[in-house]
Amino acid sequence: MGEEAALERQWQLPAVALRGALFALVAVFGWASVGLAEAATWCGILALAALPGVVLPRHRLLAPAGRLAEVAVVVLGTLATGGLPAWMLPYLIAPFATAAFDAAAPGEDGDRWSRLRTWGPPALVALAAVGLLAQAPRVADFNRGTYVTTAAVALAFGLAAAVGAWWLRRSRTSDMHHSQLPYAEAAALLTQLRVVARQLPGSTLDPGGIATEIVDTAARIPGVERAAVLSAASGRRLVVLAEHADERVDWETSPQLNSLLADAWAGQKPQAGQVPLSRSTQGPVASLVIPLVAEGRTVGLVAIESDDPAAFGPEAITAAEDRTKGAALRLETALLFEDVRSMATTEERQRLAREIHDGIAQELAMLGYGIDNAMAILPPEAGEAKGELEDLRSEVTRLVTELRFSLFELRSNVDRQGGLASAIADYARTVGASAGLRVHLSLDEGGARLPASTEAELLRIAQEAITNARKHARAENLWVTCEVDPPYTRIEVTDDGQGLSGEASEGRYGLAIMSERAERIRGSLEIRPHQPHGTTVAVVLNAGARPTPRAEAPRPGSAAWAAADRARTEQPARRPDHGGGRGSQ
To answer: Where does this protein have compositionally biased stretches of type Low complexity (predicted)?
Structure first.
């Protein structure tokens, strides 16, 4: 009701101005028609009657009573001065309009004052009409027609003013209501979501967990060799939420390149055929795609393959539909919840970055300038004081540098075009250049993408590991390995610093945060010493879905790694859209 109160205050000045203008008008009419004495008398009485409406326009009782008194004075003054020329009737516009404006204000159900406001305008119009027309017989016969016409015109103008005031108030209230409607709906939905989220078991709002259950159910269908749950991502691509296969499967994530995926998504009907659903499948296969549809919306696809070309007949398709029935709504709820949480987290990180930049960062910068000014005016003999100020200036510089790193970390996000490996590499390069670390990158990212929320968590884990190496390990070299081949992913950060024994308490807290993030995305976090000194932090998703191992990669810091690193620097690094690539700095 704060905006309604503001609207009331905005109306007060025009309402007073309207009364003043009409009062001056009837005073001039009265002076010209009935003389100064009578006009002054009735104008004084009218001013007293209008006083509550001017001084207390929002009072529940006095304001309506004042308007009623104004109408009564206008009717009685008109009749007492002979009916014609009806000099006081124009003032009826003021009480009618203010009563209608007040009646249009929203009120609570069952509020008697609200009902009183609602019936105020018609009651005033009825009172004026009855009072004026009831006295028509007392007017002389030759003036009676003119009197009735004049009274009717005055009432019509007053009624028109009332309708206009009522419409003005209603339109302004409706505009305010519509401006707040999205927030009201969002608050109601979020409140329901919070209640539901508290009632459900924790795993039921995890898209990865629900997708794993769907895959396990589909894998029990006779003849199924490989199965996966695919969900929509940005850029008209799909992401692999979970899969089941004895060997690594490179699922097709572009519906435009596979007719079964495209038809199942658009038509919302199961699609069976012998078109492979993965790029890695060789030989004849039987393929089946079951759309996950919730309330008419396609949420995801269950992709199933068999090495037997005749595996999926009508009975198998019916069995697959029955086994996945009811899972679509659960998956959509989990995906929506994850999306809302991701948006809220991103917004909060941006807000914190703004507050740090506009608050403490500016204050620290001013403190540094103050120290510089103090050092400039020190006398030459104040050597000890100058040394203390130099130490203090160095500490302020260190804090400003830490704040810059924190702001960069808060604002860093995975670009939906660049990918996870690119985001981690950019962060490692920036931190390495600022902290004097030699950064060695090994990037291997395919064309498929992880869910956005999973990529965000992996980026934060990598950032925390790199930050620990910069702040606590006192390292000289940093090796970052990023292998993304959904659903399998491995991110590894290795430094040659002083190892786990040298971690500060805040570094230990960072390790705990990384462990929580890895658990949230159903990944495994490994923290181990690196020989001859240093620490390795590795997070792995879906280790069972790891691609067929190539020749074993050299360990960070080894001679083989150094040789490969030198070889990579001889040619520009590149990361292809499909398949593996290597890059180094």
So the answer is: 545-564
